[in-house]
Amino acid sequence: MLVLGSAPPLGVLEAVALAGELEDLTAVGEPIEGGEAKLFGSALVAMSDAILQAAEDEESCFNGARVFDRMSRSQQLASLEVVARHLFHETPACLPLTAWSEATLASVLHEAKRLVEEEVEEGEKSEYRQMVLDTLDHDEEVDNWDDPEEWEGLLGCYEDRFLWDLDYEDEEATDLSPELSRQNRAVMGIGEDYYAAIPPDLRADESLQRSAERLLATVSGRRS
């Protein structure tokens, strides 16, 4: 599983720092599985369906990250596929740390959060909520299983496992002079192409439907 921008457990950070061997902490790990994979898969499928159903001149907004919402529908599907492949499959390299990749992941997390919140509101099923608890290894009893505020806190903790800042939403950073922009990136610890990197897109001869089918295949564990 590739999770760029996420923070490893504190013990790992301390061990690396003490050893004086600060290396790339976004190394490739195991693909997500179990309930977590099902939660992410449900979010990705819901987003894919929404993109396909949107009118040609209509933006597909998910309110997770402005950078993602402003992409074309073809860019959104292509970006979702890239992120999904790193989440559901072992990959030879990490996902590039860019505004578009973090914004895409943030949007998927926001959609997963929406699914949980919708479940809380309906109050009939508890499938997604149990997935979150299992993933967080949350041993404490949830005081009120149907309390939106309690789940908001737990979901915030869940999102923090993947993204520990909002650099991808810092629009002011793109409006600075070259020198100030360089200094700003250095302070935030991000690369020169973080904001400049262009999101992936579909080929001119590739349909949105075909892209959505490939995304589904990626989520279901099949290479396409």
Description:
The protein contains nine helices and no strands. The chain has 224 residues and is an all-alpha fold. It has one domain (10-219). The chain starts with 9 loop residues before the first helix and ends in a 5-residue tail after the last helix. The relative contact order is 0.17.
Give the topology string: H per helix, E per strand: HHHHHHHHH
How many domains in all?
A: 1
Number of helices: 9
The amount of beta strand, in percent, is under 5%
Largest sheet: none
Oligomerization status of the protein chains: single chain
**What is the 3D shape?**
globular
Output mean pLDDT. 76
SSE class? mainly alpha
- Termini separation comes to 18 Å
Which tags fit this structure?
mainly alpha, 224 residues
Short note summarizing the structure:
54% of the residues lie in helices and 0% in strands.
Summarize the topology.
Blueprint: H1 10-19, H2 34-53, H3 66-69, H4 73-88, H5 99-122, H6 127-136, H7 148-160, H8 178-188, H9 208-219
Helix pairs in contact: 2-4, 2-5, 2-6, 2-9, 4-5, 4-9, 5-7, 6-7
